[in-house]
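wait is this the right file?? whatever heres the structure
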């Protein structure tokens, strides 16, 4: 208990409170800017921490870390552009809700789900970090391969109505993920002797092109200006307690999925969001409304991607293994400030560990206040005339695409992706499977090839791994359930 009091004393002083509040504000706004994201936000803040004591410096970075993930939902809802890759699934129901004039309510659902998911994962981190870190160790390449295969079932769920076109779109995403240098041999693939393509494609230009630029092109070609002129309440509308109560199980389930996937190094919040979205669509009584502005879809995406933040810190703090790109930056920051993550951290620095837990908890609570206040500013975007809003979206999108790697090539990639997205819209193809295929393509290939190396090319040895068999069984169940339910309906 004394360690907890000392930890709270490190936060509740002038430097600590300033770091906490400014970190949440900065993280939210940077997260809402398309193309910047969590890693960029942390990298921007890192030099500022050199002038701070280790306590406030860590509080600042943790606040930026959790709030930047939430910030991505704001632009995803308002202008159909995921501010961060973690919010890629949020556009599926957030933007349609904004088009219906319910942007204020969409922001309320997203903020509440984000806060719940973040706090849920912090509690998991506080209670179960050491034992859960041991579970994460058991996930080698073969086990992660099974998890990714299970994640790919989301393609079928977001493509319901035209699964064939969804699979074609996913294959396009998988192909794009293979462009660039082979991670094992170093040889270049599908670069057409063009040097800029040897680094492959980054997810941000693809996201920006497929979702944002294709939307602008669609409105330009069709003359449809309704999306940007939707009459919307200005501000922030938080759902009632009864509305939350009726959705408590989807909220808990999405948070648990995000926390679990966050623990696994290298899997990431994008995967968690789509896995949770697919799970929500399977289990929700409102599954027919998914993709049309359904709150259950927003809850599934936002609760899970924010729950990843606490989950990813489990291997980071307990083992010194980064759970994602953001925690890799955090490990560097901790080492700079004289803190060495690993198995001895909980024993050697109990006060500092408790301070990190409390900082994460208060940062997630503060998101609720900052989200409600910033919504007053962001929802005014919807009142801007389309002739002004659309060029602004294009400008922000292209700047975001360039910022990721400071590459002009990424601007052209975003533009080309926008053209492809427009053609897909006209052809009746879903856009989400492209992103799912692209995001999962590289880890799928790398896990499969490592697994084959470990088993000397014998795939059947994979099934000797209990975790692999378990996830493959879940995949089979997830794919067979729709078939069984459709057969039952036909019999009825």
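ok assuming it is, sequence goes like this
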């Amino acid at each position: 208990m004394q360690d907890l009091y000392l930890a709270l004393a490190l936060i509740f002083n002038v430097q600590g409170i300033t770091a906490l509040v400014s970190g949440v504000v900065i993280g939210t706004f940077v997260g809402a800017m398309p193309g910047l994201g969590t890693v960029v936000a942390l990298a921007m803040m890192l030099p500022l921490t050199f002038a701070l004591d280790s306590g406030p410096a860590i509080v600042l970075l943790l606040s930026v870390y959790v709030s930047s993930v939430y910030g991505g939902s704001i632009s995803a809802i308002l202008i159909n552009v995921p501010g961060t890759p973690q919010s890629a699934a949020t556009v599926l129901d957030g933007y349609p809700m904004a088009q219906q004039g319910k942007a204020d309510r969409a922001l309320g659902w997203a903020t509440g789900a984000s806060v719940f998911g973040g706090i849920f994962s912090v509690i998991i981190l506080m209670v179960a970090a050491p034992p859960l870190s041991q579970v994460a160790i058991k996930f080698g390449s073969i086990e992660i391969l099974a998890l990714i295969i299970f994640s790919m079932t989301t393609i079928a769920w977001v493509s319901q109505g035209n699964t064939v076109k969804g699979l074609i779109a996913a294959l396009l995403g998988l192909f794009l993920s293979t462009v660039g240098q082979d991670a094992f041999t170093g040889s270049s693939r599908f670069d057409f002797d063009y040097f800029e393509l040897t680094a492959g494609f980054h997810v941000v230009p693809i996201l920006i092109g497929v979702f944002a630029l294709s939307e602008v092109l669609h409105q330009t070609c069709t003359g449809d200006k309704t999306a940007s002129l939707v009459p919307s309440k200005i501000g922030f509308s938080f759902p009632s307690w009864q509305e939350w109560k009726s959705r408590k199980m989807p909220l808990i389930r999405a948070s648990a999925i995000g926390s679990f996937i966050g623990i696994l190094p290298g899997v990431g919040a994008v995967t968690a969001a789509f896995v949770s979205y697919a799970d929500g669509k399977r289990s929700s009584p409102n599954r027919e409304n998914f993709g049309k502005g359904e709150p259950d879809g927003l809850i599934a995406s936002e609760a899970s991607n924010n729950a990843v933040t606490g989950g990813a810190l489990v291997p980071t703090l307990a083992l010194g293994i980064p759970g994602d790109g953001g925690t890799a930056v955090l490990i560097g920051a901790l080492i700079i400030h004289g803190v060495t993550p690993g198995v001895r951290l909980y024993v050697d620095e109990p006060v500092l560990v408790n301070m990190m837990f409390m900082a994460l908890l208060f940062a997630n609570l503060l998101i609720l206040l900052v989200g409600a206040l910033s919504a007053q500013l962001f929802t005014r975007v919807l009142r801007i005339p389309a002739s002004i809003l659309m060029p602004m979206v294009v400008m922000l999108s292209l700047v975001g695409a360039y910022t990721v790697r400071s590459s002009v090539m990424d601007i052209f990639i975003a533009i080309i992706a926008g053209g492809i997205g427009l053609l897909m819209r006209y052809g009746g193809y879903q856009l989400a499977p492209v992103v799912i295929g692209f995001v999962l393509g590289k880890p799928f290939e790398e896990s499969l090839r490592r697994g084959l190396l470990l088993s000397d090319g014998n795939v059947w040895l994979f099934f000797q791994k209990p975790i692999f068999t378990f996830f493959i069984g879940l995949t089979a169940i997830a794919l067979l359930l729709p078939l069984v339910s459709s057969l039952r309906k036909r019999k009825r």
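Strands lie at 180-181, 188-189. so i think its the right one actually
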